[in-house]
Amino acid sequence: MIKRRDWFKHLFSSILGLLTVVAKPSIIAAQAVNKETQKRNQARLLTQIGEKYLNEGRASEALESWKSATKIYRQLGYEEGITGSLINQNLALQALGLNRFACNTLLQALKLNTDTKICTILPQESTESTTKLLIAAIESYL
Q1: Is 27 left (phi over 0), alpha (psi -120 to 50) or beta?
Q2: Which contacts of 45-51 are long-range, i.e. CB under 8 A and separated by 24 or more positions?
Q3: DSSP-based helix, strand, coil % in the chain, nearest 5
Q4: Once rounded to an integer, what is the mean pLDDT over residues 114-119?
Q5: Residues 83, 87: Cα–Cα separation, whole Å
Q6: Which domains does the chain have, with CATH numbers?
Q7: Is the pTM of this model over 0.70?
Q8: What is the pLDDT of residues 60-81, one digit of tens each?
């Protein structure tokens, strides 16, 4: 015959095992949420570092920091973060004098067609042609 103490020990072990099985999905879900929060915080920190670099005149470092933030935001599927990081990259590219790349990055941030020739128009060309291309890009988006 099973002693009462052994019976309680087996009952306790069974209940503990059952609780572990039942609680495991919620633990995994909590870990996933925590990991996502950590990644989002890391991207925010990279954004702040990029701002600091740009304010110090270190546009190359700012660009790299914002590219890293964009990569994390893309992994998270966080559209607002992606857009903000791309706009920040645009600022760094302008500071570096890479205006065509800055323009293409801004079009990407605004979800406009990057195949348009908006970014290849030379400064001495008319603003009328630039306006027409921009209107066409916006209309194709709508």
Answers
A1: alpha
A2: 46/72, 47/84, 47/85, 47/88, 50/88, 50/92, 51/88
A3: 80, 0, 20
A4: 72
A5: 6
A6: 4-108 (1.25.40.10), 112-142 (no CATH)
A7: no
A8: 999 999 999 999 999 999 999 9
